[in-house]
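ok new one. same drill as before - structure tokens go in, u give me an amino acid for every spot. 484 of them this time. try not to just spam alanines like last time pls lmao
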């Protein structure tokens, strides 16, 4: 559910209501910012979704009630920008003090249907030097989760999210990623070829302005889609028209998961299985009826063993004896890339496991004979270099998309200014009424408010086609940005 106002300017009231067929309220979500600290906006959103949610995901479930975040400086560094610590502190207070009134139902990770009906703040924040619930003084920033929020976090399903990817995304692109990830996860889990997101639902829960003509919808969504298509999270996007419950134009947007989304899903599945195995192992070790004391693993080195070089550990991990490994490492050629050779061996063995009767001997021969892997093989060193180049390219792309969002805001302000300066109120009302009547004939069952919103959008669309505004590149130069 939305909590943050992602626009840089203006006030967006976050209040979602929905009634059932009998007219009874079945969904209420209302966020009331604390006027002392202001509405939680883009910085509060990044802090909440990057720093806080990362820790919540890493802790697993059930969560403790008290969560250590780190110092204000550490949080500033984690967000990847040189943000003043006072701004970080204010954003934390905005997140902690905004009051939620909720009435909703959700399905828990166990499949059970659960309800939340409460008025609450999500958590309290304790700064360094202040008292924690146990009476001790905090040495950093801590969160104390409030009961309704803690219960939802422990019971709600978890979906795979790449926090490093989220860190690079502009706020609107990140919010889209969070919303779509539920649908992508479900599609991959159930082996469906596409995930689906209804445009009107996206606008409600993003929250974003809703449009009623396809060209406006595509203009709004294309920059967001482009980010995730370029990154490989999405492979394809298509629209299918429909109408909402009130008969207003709407669209179902279908998404084909890209390689990045599939990799996230597989990593999440592996991590979940590993956590389950760790939990089962822990329970078996704690079981009092076992009657057997756990002894040291045969593979574990004795406690007095000195710290060895990383290459020695890599060789012994692959079955090479420590004595033979030390001898090999003492006879290396100058600048011999041992890890490249070991990874090449890993790749060949994985391709044909039954073809290697003595894998340790094969690794020994690769190192002893200084076998150079082919240029076509991407080892971890080359992969890291490629990923660093790709991260730099993605960073440029995300910054470019953020500028495009700001450019759209500029266009909106310019069109509003044009209307104020060139159209009298009477003339504008005449245009508005004419457009509204045309839409009324076309969509007779739409409510008056929706028709009026569509009429406003049509007028602004005509202004954009008739009036010369700065192009994106011209606007960038005016703002002092270099062209990419």
């Amino acid at each position: 559910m939305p909590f943050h106002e992602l626009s840089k300017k203006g006030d967006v009231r976050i209040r979602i209501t929905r009634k059932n067929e009998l007219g009874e309220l079945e969904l209420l979500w209302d966020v009331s910012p604390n006027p002392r600290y202001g509405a939680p906006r883009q910085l509060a959103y990044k802090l909440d979704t990057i720093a806080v949610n990362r820790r919540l995901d890493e802790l697993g479930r059930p969560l403790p009630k008290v969560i250590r975040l780190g110092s204000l400086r550490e949080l500033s560094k984690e967000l990847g920008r040189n943000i003043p610590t006072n701004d970080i502190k204010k954003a934390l207070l905005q997140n902690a003090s905004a009051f939620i009134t909720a009435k909703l139902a959700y399905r828990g990770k166990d499949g059970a249907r659960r309800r939340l009906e409460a008025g609450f703040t999500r958590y309290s924040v304790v700064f360094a030097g202040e008292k924690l619930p146990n009476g001790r003084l905090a040495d950093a920033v801590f969160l104390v989760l409030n009961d309704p929020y803690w219960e939802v976090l422990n019971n709600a399903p978890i979906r795979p999210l790449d926090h490093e990817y989220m860190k690079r995304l502009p706020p609107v692109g990140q919010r889209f990623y969070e919303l779509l990830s539920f649908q992508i996860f479900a599609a991959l889990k159930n082996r469906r070829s596409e995930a689906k997101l209804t445009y009107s639902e996206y606008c409600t829960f993003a929250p974003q302005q809703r449009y009623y003509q396809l060209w406006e919808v595509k203009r709004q969504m294309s920059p967001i889609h482009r980010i995730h298509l370029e990154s490989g999270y999405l492979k394809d996007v298509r629209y299918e028209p429909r109408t909402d419950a009130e008969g207003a134009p709407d669209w179902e947007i279908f998404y084909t998961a890209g390689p990045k989304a599939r990799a996230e899903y597989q990593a999440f599945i592996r991590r979940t299985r590993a956590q389950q195995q760790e939990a089962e192992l822990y329970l078996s070790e704690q079981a009092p009826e076992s009657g057997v004391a756990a002894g040291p693993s045969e593979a574990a080195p004795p406690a007095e063993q000195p710290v060895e070089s990383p290459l020695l550990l890599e060789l012994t991990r692959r079955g090479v004896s420590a004595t033979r490994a030390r001898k090999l490492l003492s006879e290396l050629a100058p600048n011999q890339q041992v890890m490249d050779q070991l990874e090449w061996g890993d790749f060949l063995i994985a391709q044909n496991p039954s073809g290697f009767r003595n894998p340790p001997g094969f690794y020994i021969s690769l190192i002893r004979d200084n076998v150079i892997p082919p240029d076509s093989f991407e080892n971890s060193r080359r992969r890291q270099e490629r990923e660093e180049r790709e991260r730099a390219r993605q960073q440029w792309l995300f910054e470019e998309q953020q500028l495009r969002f700001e450019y759209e805001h500029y266009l909106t302000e310019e069109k509003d200014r044009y209307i104020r300066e060139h159209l009298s109120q009477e003339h504008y009302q005449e245009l508005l009424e004419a457009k509204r009547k045309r839409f009324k004939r076309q969509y007779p069952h739409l409510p008056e408010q929706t028709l009026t919103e569509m009429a406003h959008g049509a007028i602004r669309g005509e202004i954009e086609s008739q009036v010369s505004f700065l192009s994106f590149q011209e606007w960038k130069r005016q703002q002092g940005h270099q062209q990419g």
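The domain at 159-283 is CATH 1.10.10 (Arc Repressor Mutant, subunit A). and btw Residues 277-308 have pLDDT under 50 and may be disordered.
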